[in-house]
Amino acid sequence: MKNKITALLLFGITVLFFSCGSENKKDSGEVSQQTELPPSLKTEDVGNNLIQLSDKEQSELTIKTVQVTNNFIDYSVVAPGVVFQAPNHASIISTPINGQIHEVYKFEGSWVKRGDVLFEIQSLEFGNLVSEYLQAFAEERFQTNRLTRLKQLVEETITSANELERATAEFDRATASSRAAYSRLKAVGVSDHEINLFTKGENIDPVLKIYSPIDGVVEKNFVELGQSVNALENLSRVLDTREVLIRAYLSPDDARLITVGDSVAVSKREKQENLLNARITSINPGLDESSRSVIANIVVPTSAGWPKPGENVRLSIVTSSQKETIAIPVEALTYDGNQAIVFVQKGNGIYEKRPIEVSEIRDRYVFVNSGLKNGEDVAVSNVFSLKALSRFDIIAEE
């Protein structure tokens, strides 16, 4: 009797075990079915990216396409610019010696030519320089004549060779002194014509003339008549505004696309009317410390006195990409969330919604890193309609 009871108990436990296992399997199967993603959340395959337009939709939308090609595409960069004086077109006039302003010949706003007299400075120091030169010149002339006579006497064996050697050494010293005095006069700006007049004149006028080194306009005079000045003190500033330097301030991203020789359209800041055409002359290698921009330099002749140094201008730089790349019109680009997409024509009335990777977006073109191939056709009109139809197809499938 006990054996039968034991057997019945074992049989009941076995049946209960298998029934629980089957229920667990059933539950796990139900869980797996419930955790499966709905169609709207599944990753779309290639077929779900295709949009098939009906004949009516094709006639109503009239979608235009453009063929994708690898090209060097021209594009423009707009940047602010500031006008400065051009290199070698501005000059600070300073006095080389101490003295007093004896005469002022040109005033602010006056046009001057190279070599025109701007100032006369009366200076005792200048008078001493002229006196030293005249003494050295006279000594050199005396030693020259003496050496010539001694050479004749030596040839006639009247004078010894030692006397000739001594005369030659004294002649060399006199020549060196004369050249030194001449160099000092040249250093303070005295011309050869004036130096020759000193040797022919009877009296020394200790007045130094200051000349303009360039053509231009007197922007500012820093001294007045009768004012005492020290050596190297600024007297005036002359600007030649027939040519100016424009500095374009570029962001680092824009600067890497700009090269020397790119064309530039210059206009006033408040107006976009093109007034001057120029080219990039040079590009600074580093960032400007104050503006944190890359500076491109543009040297351009002025037109009717415009632009003037200190003025702000608007620059439109037309350049080309540095490498062959795929560029599509901006009209072809749209976004699905944060993903850039285009619609590629796959056949008559068939378009594929294609994600792409964009590197640059400019005024007219979008530069594509990946997602498109050379020769494919992309839609450039009614792109938003195609985007709406693609979403409608996904909803209909769900």
Automatic annotation (TrEMBL):
Taxonomy, superkingdom: Bacteria
CzcB-like C-terminal circularly permuted SH3-like domain location: 326-387
Positions of the CzcB-like barrel-sandwich hybrid domain: 93-238
Keywords (A to Z) from UniProt: Transport
Listed GO CC annotations: membrane
InterPro entries noted in UniProt: BSH_CzcB-like (IPR058647), CzcB_C (IPR058649), MFP_Cation_Efflux (IPR051909), RND_pump_MFP (IPR006143)
MF terms (GO), sorted A to Z: transmembrane transporter activity
SUPFAM superfamilies, alphabetized: HlyD-like secretion proteins
Family to which the UniProt record says this protein belongs: Belongs to the membrane fusion protein (MFP) (TC 8.A.1) family.
Protein name per UniProt: Efflux RND transporter periplasmic adaptor subunit
